[in-house]
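Onboarding guide, step 5: your first structure request.
Type a short instruction followed by the sequence, for example:

Predict the 3D structure of this protein.
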Amino acid sequence: MPLNRPALSLGSGPRGVQDARRWVVSTCHDIGRTELEECAELGVSELVTNSLLHAQPPLSVRVRGTREHPRVEVRDGSTDVPLMPGPEPHDDDDLLLTFGRGLSIVARCSTAWGVEVEDDGKIVWFVPSTHPGDLVEGVVTGVVAPATSAQAAADELRIEIRGVPLRTFVDFQGHYRELRREVRLLALAHEHEYPLAKNLSDLFGSLERDLREGIGADQIDRALASGAATTDLHVAMPHETAATIGRFIELLDLADAFCREERLLSLARTPEQQRFQRWFLQEFVRQEAGAPPSAWRDEAPANMDSEASSAPTHRR
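The system replies with structure tokens like these:
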């Protein structure tokens, strides 16, 4: 059973820590995992305390995953990676009674944990254990590596994506980022149970990086600030990258199947999302092959698959 509960927004000060502790304990009780309450409470207390002391708002906590593998996440508005814990000589009892000591408590109260850095903040997550134990090594993910000189010098292709509906595109970005993160964390925490998650995570990461660098955030930000409903995107990327962007379609279709089987934790795409994403990604493949740009309002009906053919088309 996936846990798609809304996040709990937290205020500043000790009240935020108290609210997070009660909320996480209540969630563990509701899903029938009371044996995880102690470690979940200790871990979330440390994470929220650290965020209040060293990060910046907005601050929130949520429980994602499944009943079998619940995952506690604390999100803040800072992209700074916290100091990762090392070996400590402290007595276990003293350690677990003291807050504000880095991430040592989280490392002792989880079976897996890490830091996921995003464009506008970070998420520190952990899978609570049934009892405190030895330090578990955390992982830092989501940091985008700069393009290499070879990539920068590659033969670039200029692509025009015309008539992009901004609301739908922003929705696409949000859904994809959520899906990418779920696949990555699933691979990190439970790779032996979900071996395909590691392959999906690697492919999603490399393709998304190329697509994001090719588009750039400033185009979308300017269009949104203008209040426009649609915009034309001007994209520059290597020919090889544009040709392989079409693999996104296969990956997203596969991820949808995993979501419907509750093997992934996000929701499957709606028919509207499928139609838009298929058109958007296929534009890169078409234009790399020499075809002229074709706007969304013209191409959406032609790209509908049999499953979505009866759904209403987008007309602008």
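Each response can be followed by summary notes, for example: The chain is about 45% helix and 20% strand.
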